């Protein structure tokens, strides 16, 4: 897809082109309001508009979010996510609240850069300063929780980081011109199933429900099939349009049930248990798990003239790269999956979860088939791993990975640093590193060329079936080789 400029943005605005949703925002000088390009409002005159790369940038320049198209509900934009690696990490840390009680200097220190350099590259890539991003993000996520969750206003004020209901009300009135309660009038509320439902995956009265939208097109069916084939017994359950799992965040247990809408619009997330308090972090993890924000039109445009990939894109235009719930879990899955079938890897992972994972309370998971959460690195240190069915060599590799992730500085390591540390572990080769990069780090250019399935799919489509030759032609697919890999895997459906 072309690089955006004002002419392209205005044309997309006039045609309400959904491919550009989340990629830019239109601010109207005469009204002081900014919108998504798909907004149903009358198209403003060209001379009256300005274009911004993120909703945060529009807010920072004094514009109010539109109440009709809801910019806070747009898929994550490349600009707000940060196309620069350091900016991407900064955005993630800011969204986790690092500036609530810390300074820009503290944030820069965690990123290993100077504070002046951080301010410069952050403004360059997002259009705003880190402080402006944090302020605008707080408003946007509060507005999203008002409309897309069933939380009370007091709960939203606390979760969004306002500190008090009064500060929350004042900030929302100033930003939107209305009290927060006004946003729920006339809005279809997220409600549980009718009383008496015996479906353990249906919403209950005390569940927290969060609605997440996906950038279109979105192939939910492929994602569900992928996760169904790899679901770890006791940890995950995948039904026709549902993915559920147990999880643990900040020492608290929870159950997550994701219902994929029939119209492929996105996911409704049901949360149970004490861990549901981390709803914003959970929402971010779900977006990464299902790759909801992928700019698919831009990605597939690069494959449109490729003889090997074009037919696969045509078959599944909304295909995504499945992510992971957390890096440590994916790292162990990758090691357990070395040189064994998908079914065998599931069995090994299931034994690991049953033996070392914390058990979930019965009232939380009754009837779901889910029993445990995935073990933490700390809980696995020093444990005997051979009894789950591993060879001595594979058990040692797994133990070395566990030791790495148990390090106190592991959470602060960049993706590159983590890959470098894993490379030094005996038993970790190119396939494991690329697979971890692809799903664990969300690296859009990771490409496990030595994967037997990818080689087979390439040969079936008339491409090379040797590693070096495949790596050579994959240069044409940069920087989206992870999606190329997923398309090749999709060619093996029914094999």
Automatic annotation (TrEMBL):
It comes from Thalassospira indica. The lineage of its organism: Bacteria, Pseudomonadati, Pseudomonadota, Alphaproteobacteria, Rhodospirillales. Its EC number is 3.2.2.21. The keyword Methyltransferase applies. Its cofactor is Zn(2+). It is an enzyme of class 3 (hydrolase). It catalyses: Hydrolysis of alkylated DNA, releasing 3-methyladenine, 3-methylguanine, 7-methylguanine and 7-methyladenine. Pfam families: Ada_Zn_binding (PF02805), AlkA_N (PF06029), HTH_18 (PF12833). This is DNA-3-methyladenine glycosylase II. Keywords: Activator, DNA damage, DNA repair, Methyltransferase, Transcription, Transcription regulation, Transferase. Residues 88-186 form the HTH araC/xylS-type domain.
